[in-house]
Design goal:
By secondary structure, the chain is of the alpha/beta class. It has 13 helices and seven strands.
């Protein structure tokens, strides 16, 4: 028998943001299988506030049907959106490598559509008009239900907010929210960001450099969330893994669980994003990348000086 949870915003939310290219999805994957955490994998819902703001109305059936239609990737990671969207890339499941997970990289990250809709309707059955907070909590509960994960009203929701964009985070003020921006050596983070953007830049190098500089130099806590924001370094996460994850769990007031040392989504081993090295879990490959094909030692010396504030 289905047992609905009580949506009273008791749950705490940990929102994770990135700093250039800094491993925010990797950190999320380490919390994926903690028994007191529930999460929707990767960047699927990072723009849910923007998506909700564009709805024609907030009637119960309309919101549920619209969500399940627009987020088909929940049920098939290979699904490609035909319509361009500002809230997610058209091939977001493939970009996350969610079609090649598990021990033999032959499994997929997905949930059963009928089961998800069934749970979502049960969670929202007493609400004629849906608020963004209602939907946010309900889709996490429904997702966890599909995974047959024991759900408690005091569980943490791990939210891949991804970008530090205030308009995407305003609704989080209605929850007990904490934010972790995961940071990284500014030069490596920025050069990795440029390399990622090269694929669609068509050689607009000047704009890429401006993008790199502006993205990193404007990095700061979200306005209104400064007191609940603490960052960790990607380098520490890889090199002092247990110590760093213990710090994270202590800050969240959660008990230790060995699952936080395993990179998974839906409890299945995950092998990094599609556009980078396909490595599993903690490693030195990512943090040791020098990107010498993009910048020589002179360039790096200049950037070290330019980003002095960030290094401090």
């Amino acid at each position: 028998m289905y047992k609905e949870s009580k949506l009273k915003f008791k749950r705490k939310v940990l929102a994770i943001t990135y700093y250039g290219r800094s491993g925010s999805v990797f950190l999320q994957s380490l919390l994926d299988n903690h028994p007191n955490c529930i999460t929707i994998p990767g960047c699927y819902i990072m723009g849910i506030q923007e998506w909700f703001n564009k709805l024609e109305n907030n009637n119960n059936n309309f919101v549920i049907n619209k969500f399940c239609n627009d987020y088909k990737v929940f049920f098939d990671p290979k699904y490609i959106n035909k319509e361009p969207s500002s809230t997610m890339s058209k091939d977001i499941g493939l970009a996350h490598n969610f079609h090649k997970v598990g021990k033999n990289q032959n499994e997929k990250i997905l949930v059963d559509k009928k089961k998800f809709i069934f749970s979502l309707k049960n969670e929202l059955n007493n609400k004629k008009h849906i608020k963004i907070t209602d939907l946010f909590e309900a889709i996490h509960v429904a997702y966890a239900y599909c995974l047959e994960k024991k759900i408690d009203n005091n569980d943490w929701i791990i939210f891949q907010l991804h970008s530090s964009t205030l308009s995407r985070a305003v609704f989080l003020k209605q929850f007990n929210t904490k934010i972790i921006p995961i940071i990284r050596d500014p030069i490596k983070s920025g050069l990795s960001l440029i390399k990622n953007k090269f694929k669609s830049s068509h050689g607009e190098n000047k704009k890429l450099l401006q993008f790199f500089v502006n993205t990193l130099n404007n990095a700061k806590p979200l306005i209104g969330f400064e007191e609940v924001t603490q960052s960790i370094k990607l380098e520490d996460l890889h090199l002092e893994s247990k110590k760093t994850m213990q710090i994270v769990l202590d800050w969240m007031e959660l008990p230790w669980h060995d699952n936080v040392l395993i990179s998974t989504f839906n409890g299945k081993l995950w092998y990094n994003l599609a556009d980078t090295d396909h490595v599993q879990g903690f490693n030195k490959v990512i943090i040791n990348k020098q990107h010498d094909d993009l910048a020589d030692n002179y360039d790096k010396a200049f950037f070290t000086l330019y980003f002095n504030r960030l290094y401090n």
